[in-house]
Amino acid sequence: MSKELYLKSDSNVAVLILHGYTGSPHDMYYIGRQIHKSGFSIYIPRLPGHGTNSNDFLNSNWRDWLRKSIDSYLDLKAYHEKVYILGLSMGGLLTTILASKFHPEKIVLAAPALKAKDWRINLTPFFGFIVKKIKKKNPQTFDDEKLAYLASQYWNYDWPSKAADLYKLQKMALKNLSKVTSKTYVILSKKDEAVPFSVKEIIENNIKGKIEFLILEESGHVVVNDIEKEHVAEQTINWLKKE
Protein backbone atom coordinates (compact mmCIF):
# COMPACT_ATOMS: atom_id res chain seq x y z
CA MET A 1 0.00 0.00 0.00
CA SER A 2 2.89 2.35 0.76
CA LYS A 3 5.13 0.92 -1.94
CA GLU A 4 6.43 3.11 -4.71
CA LEU A 5 5.11 2.22 -8.15
CA TYR A 6 7.05 2.43 -11.41
CA LEU A 7 5.40 1.15 -14.58
CA LYS A 8 7.35 1.43 -17.81
CA SER A 9 5.92 1.74 -21.31
CA ASP A 10 7.41 2.15 -24.79
CA SER A 11 6.58 5.86 -24.72
CA ASN A 12 9.27 8.51 -24.48
CA VAL A 13 6.97 10.40 -22.07
CA ALA A 14 6.77 9.65 -18.35
CA VAL A 15 4.43 11.06 -15.71
CA LEU A 16 5.76 11.72 -12.22
CA ILE A 17 2.87 11.38 -9.74
CA LEU A 18 3.19 12.94 -6.28
CA HIS A 19 0.95 12.09 -3.34
CA GLY A 20 -0.18 14.45 -0.59
CA TYR A 21 0.53 15.32 3.04
CA THR A 22 0.13 12.25 5.34
CA GLY A 23 -0.78 10.29 2.22
CA SER A 24 1.04 7.49 0.45
CA PRO A 25 1.54 6.12 -3.08
CA HIS A 26 -1.64 4.08 -2.55
CA ASP A 27 -3.75 7.23 -3.01
CA MET A 28 -2.34 7.57 -6.52
CA TYR A 29 -2.37 3.92 -7.66
CA TYR A 30 -5.67 4.13 -9.51
CA ILE A 31 -4.92 7.18 -11.64
CA GLY A 32 -1.32 6.05 -12.10
CA ARG A 33 -2.32 2.66 -13.45
CA GLN A 34 -4.92 4.21 -15.75
CA ILE A 35 -2.35 6.66 -17.13
CA HIS A 36 0.06 3.77 -17.70
CA LYS A 37 -2.61 1.75 -19.52
CA SER A 38 -3.05 4.71 -21.87
CA GLY A 39 0.59 4.47 -22.95
CA PHE A 40 2.72 6.53 -20.56
CA SER A 41 5.44 5.40 -18.18
CA ILE A 42 4.55 6.40 -14.62
CA TYR A 43 6.41 6.72 -11.33
CA ILE A 44 4.75 7.24 -7.94
CA PRO A 45 7.45 7.86 -5.30
CA ARG A 46 6.88 7.62 -1.57
CA LEU A 47 7.73 10.91 0.08
CA PRO A 48 10.02 10.51 3.13
CA GLY A 49 8.20 9.93 6.41
CA HIS A 50 4.97 8.92 4.66
CA GLY A 51 3.30 5.52 4.56
CA THR A 52 5.51 4.00 7.29
CA ASN A 53 4.99 5.23 10.86
CA SER A 54 4.55 8.38 12.92
CA ASN A 55 8.17 8.50 14.08
CA ASP A 56 9.37 8.54 10.48
CA PHE A 57 6.89 11.31 9.77
CA LEU A 58 8.07 13.46 12.69
CA ASN A 59 11.68 13.00 11.59
CA SER A 60 10.98 14.18 8.03
CA ASN A 61 10.45 17.74 6.81
CA TRP A 62 9.65 19.88 3.76
CA ARG A 63 13.26 19.74 2.54
CA ASP A 64 13.12 15.93 2.42
CA TRP A 65 9.81 15.96 0.54
CA LEU A 66 11.04 18.52 -1.98
CA ARG A 67 14.41 16.79 -2.44
CA LYS A 68 12.70 13.44 -3.14
CA SER A 69 10.42 15.11 -5.68
CA ILE A 70 13.30 16.82 -7.48
CA ASP A 71 15.42 13.65 -7.52
CA SER A 72 12.47 11.64 -8.85
CA TYR A 73 11.93 14.14 -11.66
CA LEU A 74 15.62 14.16 -12.61
CA ASP A 75 15.81 10.35 -12.53
CA LEU A 76 12.84 10.10 -14.91
CA LYS A 77 14.23 12.84 -17.15
CA ALA A 78 17.45 10.88 -17.58
CA TYR A 79 15.53 8.10 -19.34
CA HIS A 80 12.60 9.90 -20.98
CA GLU A 81 12.44 12.70 -23.50
CA LYS A 82 9.56 14.36 -21.66
CA VAL A 83 8.36 14.21 -18.07
CA TYR A 84 4.97 15.53 -17.04
CA ILE A 85 4.08 15.99 -13.37
CA LEU A 86 0.81 15.29 -11.55
CA GLY A 87 0.44 16.21 -7.89
CA LEU A 88 -2.35 15.84 -5.33
CA SER A 89 -2.77 18.42 -2.55
CA MET A 90 0.74 18.91 -1.10
CA GLY A 91 1.90 17.03 -4.17
CA GLY A 92 0.36 19.89 -6.13
CA LEU A 93 2.55 22.33 -4.20
CA LEU A 94 5.63 20.24 -4.99
CA THR A 95 4.53 20.06 -8.63
CA THR A 96 4.23 23.86 -8.74
CA ILE A 97 7.71 24.34 -7.27
CA LEU A 98 9.23 21.82 -9.69
CA ALA A 99 7.40 23.39 -12.64
CA SER A 100 8.76 26.84 -11.74
CA LYS A 101 12.28 25.39 -11.84
CA PHE A 102 12.23 22.81 -14.65
CA HIS A 103 9.34 24.05 -16.87
CA PRO A 104 7.91 20.69 -18.00
CA GLU A 105 5.55 20.89 -20.94
CA LYS A 106 2.54 19.76 -18.88
CA ILE A 107 1.51 19.57 -15.23
CA VAL A 108 -1.66 18.45 -13.45
CA LEU A 109 -2.66 20.08 -10.15
CA ALA A 110 -5.23 17.93 -8.31
CA ALA A 111 -6.80 19.78 -5.36
CA PRO A 112 -3.57 21.78 -4.93
CA ALA A 113 -3.20 22.97 -1.33
CA LEU A 114 -2.35 26.59 -2.18
CA LYS A 115 -4.80 27.53 0.55
CA ALA A 116 -6.33 25.51 3.39
CA LYS A 117 -9.81 25.64 4.86
CA ASP A 118 -8.31 25.01 8.30
CA TRP A 119 -7.12 28.46 9.42
CA ARG A 120 -4.90 26.89 12.09
CA ILE A 121 -2.23 26.20 9.48
CA ASN A 122 -1.32 29.89 9.70
CA LEU A 123 -0.31 29.39 13.35
CA THR A 124 1.86 26.33 12.78
CA PRO A 125 5.17 28.19 12.26
CA PHE A 126 4.86 29.23 15.92
CA PHE A 127 2.68 26.53 17.49
CA GLY A 128 4.55 23.72 15.74
CA PHE A 129 7.69 24.29 17.78
CA ILE A 130 5.77 23.55 20.98
CA VAL A 131 3.30 20.81 20.03
CA LYS A 132 4.27 17.86 17.85
CA LYS A 133 0.94 16.04 17.60
CA ILE A 134 -2.62 16.22 18.90
CA LYS A 135 -5.00 13.25 18.97
CA LYS A 136 -8.23 13.94 17.06
CA LYS A 137 -11.57 13.72 18.87
CA ASN A 138 -13.16 11.56 16.19
CA PRO A 139 -10.64 8.97 14.98
CA GLN A 140 -11.20 7.24 11.65
CA THR A 141 -11.93 3.52 11.62
CA PHE A 142 -11.32 1.09 8.76
CA ASP A 143 -12.08 -2.58 8.21
CA ASP A 144 -9.00 -2.86 6.00
CA GLU A 145 -6.06 -3.72 8.24
CA LYS A 146 -3.53 -1.66 6.30
CA LEU A 147 -5.74 1.44 6.21
CA ALA A 148 -6.45 1.04 9.92
CA TYR A 149 -2.72 0.99 10.57
CA LEU A 150 -2.10 4.16 8.54
CA ALA A 151 -4.97 5.85 10.37
CA SER A 152 -3.41 4.94 13.72
CA GLN A 153 -0.06 6.35 12.62
CA TYR A 154 -1.15 9.46 10.67
CA TRP A 155 -4.78 10.37 10.11
CA ASN A 156 -6.05 10.17 13.69
CA TYR A 157 -3.76 13.00 14.76
CA ASP A 158 -3.15 16.62 13.92
CA TRP A 159 0.53 17.35 13.40
CA PRO A 160 1.30 21.04 14.13
CA SER A 161 5.05 20.63 13.61
CA LYS A 162 4.58 18.87 10.26
CA ALA A 163 1.78 21.20 9.19
CA ALA A 164 4.39 23.93 9.57
CA ASP A 165 6.38 22.13 6.87
CA LEU A 166 3.28 21.99 4.68
CA TYR A 167 2.77 25.71 5.31
CA LYS A 168 6.36 26.36 4.20
CA LEU A 169 5.76 24.54 0.90
CA GLN A 170 2.48 26.39 0.50
CA LYS A 171 4.26 29.74 0.74
CA MET A 172 7.02 28.58 -1.64
CA ALA A 173 4.47 27.42 -4.20
CA LEU A 174 2.51 30.68 -4.03
CA LYS A 175 5.71 32.68 -4.43
CA ASN A 176 6.72 30.69 -7.51
CA LEU A 177 3.30 30.32 -9.13
CA SER A 178 3.90 33.17 -11.57
CA LYS A 179 7.04 31.40 -12.84
CA VAL A 180 5.01 28.40 -14.05
CA THR A 181 4.83 28.40 -17.85
CA SER A 182 3.67 24.79 -18.29
CA LYS A 183 0.33 23.85 -19.79
CA THR A 184 -1.69 23.22 -16.63
CA TYR A 185 -4.69 21.00 -15.92
CA VAL A 186 -6.40 21.75 -12.60
CA ILE A 187 -8.82 19.38 -10.88
CA LEU A 188 -11.01 20.93 -8.17
CA SER A 189 -14.07 19.71 -6.30
CA LYS A 190 -16.84 21.86 -4.88
CA LYS A 191 -17.08 19.42 -1.96
CA ASP A 192 -13.35 19.42 -1.11
CA GLU A 193 -13.22 19.53 2.69
CA ALA A 194 -9.58 20.64 2.87
CA VAL A 195 -8.85 23.05 -0.01
CA PRO A 196 -11.16 26.01 -0.70
CA PHE A 197 -12.55 26.46 -4.21
CA SER A 198 -11.03 29.97 -4.21
CA VAL A 199 -7.67 28.49 -5.24
CA LYS A 200 -9.15 28.53 -8.76
CA GLU A 201 -8.85 32.31 -8.87
CA ILE A 202 -5.30 32.24 -7.48
CA ILE A 203 -4.26 29.85 -10.24
CA GLU A 204 -6.02 31.82 -12.98
CA ASN A 205 -4.36 35.07 -11.89
CA ASN A 206 -0.82 33.74 -11.58
CA ILE A 207 0.14 30.78 -13.77
CA LYS A 208 1.50 31.95 -17.12
CA GLY A 209 0.85 28.75 -19.08
CA LYS A 210 -2.44 27.77 -20.68
CA ILE A 211 -4.82 26.52 -17.98
CA GLU A 212 -7.78 24.14 -18.21
CA PHE A 213 -10.05 23.15 -15.33
CA LEU A 214 -11.98 20.01 -14.42
CA ILE A 215 -14.61 20.93 -11.84
CA LEU A 216 -16.12 18.09 -9.80
CA GLU A 217 -19.43 18.15 -7.95
CA GLU A 218 -19.24 15.19 -5.56
CA SER A 219 -15.64 14.25 -4.72
CA GLY A 220 -13.86 14.94 -1.45
CA HIS A 221 -10.28 16.12 -1.16
CA VAL A 222 -8.58 13.05 -2.65
CA VAL A 223 -10.10 13.80 -6.06
CA VAL A 224 -8.01 11.20 -7.93
CA ASN A 225 -9.32 8.32 -5.81
CA ASP A 226 -12.86 9.23 -4.83
CA ILE A 227 -16.39 8.76 -6.17
CA GLU A 228 -15.58 10.42 -9.52
CA LYS A 229 -12.16 8.80 -10.00
CA GLU A 230 -13.07 7.17 -13.34
CA HIS A 231 -14.13 10.51 -14.79
CA VAL A 232 -11.03 12.20 -13.38
CA ALA A 233 -8.71 9.59 -14.89
CA GLU A 234 -10.44 9.67 -18.28
CA GLN A 235 -10.40 13.46 -18.57
CA THR A 236 -6.83 13.73 -17.30
CA ILE A 237 -5.59 11.16 -19.81
CA ASN A 238 -7.43 12.93 -22.64
CA TRP A 239 -5.72 16.17 -21.66
CA LEU A 240 -2.28 14.58 -21.32
CA LYS A 241 -2.60 13.13 -24.83
CA LYS A 242 -3.66 16.40 -26.45
CA GLU A 243 -1.11 18.18 -28.59
UniProtKB/TrEMBL annotation:
Species of origin reads Petrotoga halophila DSM 16923
Name of this chain's protein: Esterase
Q: What is the lineage of its organism?
A: Bacteria, Thermotogati, Thermotogota, Thermotogae, Petrotogales
Extract the SUPFAM superfamilies matched here.
Answer: alpha/beta-Hydrolases
- The active site of this protein is located at S89, D192, H221
Pfam families cross-referenced by the UniProt entry: Abhydrolase_1
Per UniProt, residues of the AB hydrolase-1 domain are 14-121
GO molecular function: any one? Answer: carboxylic ester hydrolase activity
Q: Which InterPro entries match?
A: AB_hydrolase_1 (IPR000073), AB_hydrolase_fold (IPR029058), Esterase_lipase (IPR012354), MAG_DAG_Lipase (IPR051044)
Q: Which PANTHER family match?
A: PHOSPHOLIPASE-RELATED (PTHR11614)
